[in-house]
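Journal club side-thread
Mid-discussion, someone asked how the predicted structure for our own chain would compare to the paper's figures. Pasting it here so we can look after the session.
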Amino acid sequence: MGVNGKRGQVTLFIIIGIIIVVMGVLIFLFYPQIKSSISSNAQTPEAFIQNCLEEEISNNIKIISLQGGSLEPKGYYLYENYKISYLCYTNEDLKKCVVQKAPLKMYIEDEIKNSINKNVEQCFSSLKESYEKSGYDVTVKKGDYNVELLPKRVVTNLNYSVTLTKQDTIKYENFNVIVNNNVYELMTIANSIVEWERNYGDSETTLYMALYKDLKVEKKKQSEGTTIYIITDRNNENKFQFAVRSIALPVGY
């Protein structure tokens, strides 16, 4: 390699070195700002709302499931400190019961929805406040929302929109909060048992356990004619329990 070649190589190394130094200086100057910007809004609006509502929805589903599909039961039987709603009931002896909550799926969806009214407002207010602290102009447009029971999950669909403006403007619409819970499956079994009670005044729980190996279905007869049904998923211990009074025998019979 000639002298000129060596000089060219040295020049190239010098240029590369200068570039590395300049990049290092830029990173040193701007990285704290970049890091601060990312950390202050590490969550997207969708993730923020999911995290804000998920636990509350999950807790309310558990309470509603243990109380026969109702958050605040009215017609109920007190069993082991739980107010368990009657899903099929008659106050007459030797009479078949009348279904109390139909369709049950829609009833439970409404109960979950009503249980989070305040939480939805609070979560979107917290979202607005959080992004405003990070320098964003935030517009929240309220909308309706609904809860849907689906196989192995409960989905809350929020027809809200959030617009974030800093240098650019980004709009987020239609938020979905997903909770993993198989209340849909347990409710479906409950519906089937209610139909047996409505038509025949009793049900055969062993049939369900023969068909669904992961389920435990208990039938607890009470002295005044009420029956408490407890449906338990053996895998996750999720429960749905409810009360029925159908073809009850007279006292002393």
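Post-session note: The two ends are 115 Å apart (CA to CA).
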